[in-house]
Amino acid sequence: MDVIQEVSVVGPRQFRNNDVAIGAGNEFWTACRSNGLAGIVANLTGDGMLEDPDGFRFLNLSCCSYLDLDSHPQIIEGAIEALRKYGVLDHCISRIRIQLPMLLELEEALGGLFDARVVSAISASAATAGVLPLLASGHLTRGERPLMIFDKFAHFSMNLFKPVCADETTVLTCPNNDLNFIEDQCKRNHKVAYVTDGTFSMGGHADVAGLLELQDRYGLFLYFDDSHSLSVAGSRGEGYVRSQIASLSDDTIIVATLNKAFGSSGGAIMLPKSRTDMEDILTRFGGPLAWSQPMNTAAVGASLASAQLHDSPELKLRQSQLDANILRFDAQVLTPQRGNGFPIKVVPVANTRVVSCAQELLRRGYYVSPVFFPIVPRSQAGLRVMLRSGLSPAAVDHLCKSIIDVVGQDVEVKHDQDATVQ
Amino acid sequence: MDVIQEVSVVGPRQFRNNDVAIGAGNEFWTACRSNGLAGIVANLTGDGMLEDPDGFRFLNLSCCSYLDLDSHPQIIEGAIEALRKYGVLDHCISRIRIQLPMLLELEEALGGLFDARVVSAISASAATAGVLPLLASGHLTRGERPLMIFDKFAHFSMNLFKPVCADETTVLTCPNNDLNFIEDQCKRNHKVAYVTDGTFSMGGHADVAGLLELQDRYGLFLYFDDSHSLSVAGSRGEGYVRSQIASLSDDTIIVATLNKAFGSSGGAIMLPKSRTDMEDILTRFGGPLAWSQPMNTAAVGASLASAQLHDSPELKLRQSQLDANILRFDAQVLTPQRGNGFPIKVVPVANTRVVSCAQELLRRGYYVSPVFFPIVPRSQAGLRVMLRSGLSPAAVDHLCKSIIDVVGQDVEVKHDQDATVQ
User: Is the Cβ pair A299, B296 closer than 8 Å?
Assistant: First the structure.
């Protein structure tokens, strides 16, 4: 038999390298699981707590529902009402052909809230899968194929599509928030597109003002995934990036998940109102946006209910409660994120102790995610805590005391540091 | 200002070319919409019909819910019960960390039905996004990086990831179902993986028996997306491909949507029971499978209810009704798909007439999808009809009569051709 064994079929690994990523990641997750900090199975108990099969109850501080809207009765009722009204979870057909009016109603409601033209998706990552390849080929920039720059800290869901974009155009990666790098490319290329998180999952934002200046001067196209700040920021919950932009220019797209603070399930793409052409291109050729998989009826009904809550005093109330909890935490526990107004905090802990500290906190009823080598450098190990609006002041205080007790006095805020906070 | 205008930043376009694809597609969709055959907005009326805002009622024959399970009361109740029980649509956290027992219960139930280890996803395309890059880097083939062959007719949701896979390994495209091409590569390479639809959306299947033989001889890895046949084929609705394989070998993965005949929302990945390692790798590093976006509570509840129906006489009943409707249609209307036992039929119509025929059928109350140049060659134009189990014999007869009446006598089956059918 004519068998020739090639030495290797390895690709260029220009944009990805699973061997390296999985090598580090597997070590991390195996350590988490063997110490009871991953692979947990637990049920919601209706009072904001989780309960495992042995009856052990704990508070999940690794959940992105920052405004606790995920369990809001009106949102759940919205899902149920939609199911009762339409009698299907998914009437399977591409929306290009036939779509239920409810989907348009949702996109209209979200468009009103966010002052944008909105196209929905089953998730923010499905939205990204739909938008980025079309951006790469120039179909969102009036035929002008842009050079694409991905921020080094852009989420995996964007980075996944680097090789796809690179089949259509030139793709570069820039250091986090490096406006000089971007401006340099704007000078060298007629059209440039920049792809980044609006709000990074470990804290910090894109430099929206600086980027808008580059957009003004060079026509820079901006693609933001602002999933972590939707609902949390902005007077109508439009998120950090949208709240920093008076009016979306022809060259700006913001994508955000509806799964986190928004409290339902799905994704939203905010498009400039001036660009009616984008909507057609996206729903016809945007991969998952065009296939027979719109947001399901329950997700649409829940999202419509959440949109109503966003347009009511309830949003401001919950945002204020979250802000107060963030300030309260910052006043007691020292983290690099102190004072940034964002609900994610990483409490520094020595790499050798981070797992045992997380275990002890879980034993005391708090699930926080340990972050340690090899997924971050040893010097950056810590416990990631995600705050929520629904935590009572007493609960935040008890959480802070538990962290200080378990981790040690070095994370406790002394009175002189405290003064500026509240 | 130091502005250098590069002539072009165009990528190699080795695997994709949006200019070409969108050029043809836009012309097609614009023609459909301007003739009222796309962009339709309509509500379900609870009796299997759709109704547009003007009160016009029609039957949707372009819906993939082949067994009409999408509107089954038990499935809708399953979704509602889960929402009531858990009180959230999506408790936003990665399943690697914490997961609701209901998700495991669903995967167990689907695993029982399909005799496989099952991992869920929000859609079949999210499953593909998770699996293919890991297959490319050798992480599903015990470290052996395979050369990958995509079938030329593989769905867009798989082709989208060709450039991603090509960054990790060598990627080729083979003519549809070309076993000689695949065998040739098996002889030249130590490990080969083949990526294909199990059941093609225009009819026809992968050559499962031939592929299993290549797997036996060369260790060929097989990746099937069998979305169009799940629930429709197999005594427990396991789909065409799974029903052709006695036991999934270490080198086989089948992905399928739960949005079509299964009647709910989501995706299922069938893995060999022997490969417990695959599940860990997929849920840790499988992109959308690892991010904070599991199937939402409503989708899980509906899917659990559908799994129960699949394990009851209801499945066989609906499959038989669908089979009868397929035979009934085949006996009256001549298509290239006649006698293939599959619910999708393309009625040949001259390219110049296909739009007006679709319009006239819609006027008579039947929405069928016109397919015409430039998305298919002029010689292959036609009307795509998707049959369902819930159509009464009288409805199928009336549909057939309407098609013959509108399209012309050339599609009518004469008695001599009819004889073998029923």
Answer: yes
